[in-house]
Amino acid sequence: MTRFERNKLNEVITQIPQGLVLTLDWLKEHGVSSKLAWWYVQSRWLERVGNEAYKKYGDEVSWVGALSAVQNQLHLPLHVGAKTALELLGQAHFIPMQGIKRVSLFHGSMVKVPLWFRKPKAWDAEFNIYQVSLFQEDDAHLGMIKRAIDGVDVYLSSPERAALEILYLVPNKQSFEEASKLIETLTQLRPNHVQNLLEKCKSIKAKRLFLYLADKFQHPWLSKVDLSKVNLGHGNRVIGEGGDYHPKYQLSLPKIVEE
Question: Are strands 237-238 and 251-253 parallel, antiparallel or unpaired?
């Protein structure tokens, strides 16, 4: 390795925070070619974590560091949503003491997620990746926010969007009972954000469930939402096996046994 190549790596390494995957795209942007990256692996400056993906030698990379690389280096429209977003924002009814072990990720179009990112047991959490069509492509970033998690910036859903994502997954990927408990905690949603999301959301099921639960729990922000501007479709919707019919929102819902 030449002195120039060693100096170039030193310059690059000093710019990188701990705990991040380094994609080849990012390295090239900082003057490190694929050939140089190979030399750095041989010299134990870098370690490969997969095809065109690296980390500092000996570094520990969490799921957050992997996701940040996908979002901020590869610029893929993949974000944390649903229950995981609420957990990270401290708004879930139960936050795991041992840290988050299952992460819900969403994207709205065909996205080629790298194999190194999807590899089983590669990270300290398991990814559930959902392709959903909650919004039109032009509105895909509605309700998205950036937050620093363990010092690393990632994109995730706001509480308002996360609520709709949770209800979109009912009943096949998310139980109605747990979804109900999660929505019950959301007493402080912002009416203007709710309004905008409901007007743009394409899922009739998610919108009806959202309004039914907000009504059931008498959330104060609901009174400030103009439902005349929200398309709730026509006809009944049966969720799971149904059981209880609620005519106001034309929903047949599973029975929940109250404790």
Answer: parallel
pLDDT tens by residue, 204-213:
999 999 999 9
Q: Where are the domains of the chain?
A: 3-56, 63-253
Q: Within 13 Å and on the Cβ side, how many CA atoms surround 5?
A: 14
**Per-residue model confidence as pLDDT tens digits over 126-182:** 999 999 989 998 898 999 999 999 889 999 999 999 999 999 999 999 999 999 999
- How far apart, in whole angstroms, are the C-alpha atoms of residue 256 and residue 175? 11
Nearest to 167 by CA among 134, 199, 129: 134
Do strands 79-80 and 102-107 pair parallel, antiparallel, or not at all (unpaired)? antiparallel
